[in-house]
Amino acid sequence: MSVTTPQRAALPPVAGRDPFFDNAKFLAITLVVSGHLIENLRDVPVAHAAYFFVYTFHMPLFIVLSGYLSRNFTFGSGKARKLISTLAVPYVIFELIYSLPRLLLYGKLDISLLDPYYLTWFLMSLFLWRLSTPVWQQLRWPLVVAVGLSLLSGMSRLPDELSMNRTLGLLPFYVLGLMLRPEHFEWLRRRWVRVAGAVVLVAGAALALAVHTSVKTEWIRWRHANDVIGVDDLTGSLIRLGMLAAGALLVAAFLAVTPSRRTWYSGLGMATMYAYLLHGLVVKVAERFYGDWAQTVPGVAAVALFGVGLAALLCTPPVRRVTRWAVEPRMNWAFTKLRKPGR
Q1: Is-above-0.85 flag for pTM?
Q2: Which of 100, 101, 166, 214 has its CA 20 to 30 A from that of 248?
């Protein structure tokens, strides 16, 4: 396939939009999609190591970028409406959509809008993080407070409602994104930093290959309290600090090696929410066709490469046109005219 084909499929450039962030989001969504596709192949050591490595930083990367791009969020009417139409409504729609495979495959219909299922936890958490944005911008040491809340969340068995463990556990990455400024990303683009970033990623992958069997995967999922994972609170807090530090380091390294120029996939990076919300449906179907061929190193590589292609496909304009009603529903009909507070 010619490299010019994705350019035609991608979205047109937007004036004043930095392609660096679109590149980062597209590369990140390929990790998310490929990571979910190889999740059921973790009996293959290389797949388990890759899964462990990717999950250490792929969602922290999305969360940091989300925080950075949410710096100007306020409770103004326009921003509140966008929050509803881009997060709240799609959350409800996909909670219903993802309940259908369970109904068809297992005869089980279990819908709880307060208890996110599968991929939808990110929409719920991002909704809550974005609502909290003005609060973090008023604090003197927001990152310290966020890390403290993350550690405290590991000391209690929080309810599944509102995805509380993940919302609080991963909160520092969102706050970190809020604190970043353009000059921080400019610093990452220095040549020596890019080289160092590549070295860190290679070293991280090698370390993951060495330790993936001795570290419980629940630490990279942020779903449970320390005692559920089987450690005391002191040990759990130290491990969580280590996971936060490792995630932040790998996020910085990944961003350092991300191209800053416009590429064939920059336009696709403008629509990564489509790939995120839709790919789970393909994953649930694809997993049923894994055979012995997939339980090999070449099979894992093939599935991962399929994930890259799937991520690109789901970001293209034709897919967007067909699924916009669910991912980016037009909600103007549900809102009144903008009015000033008190009127």
Answers
A1: yes
A2: 214
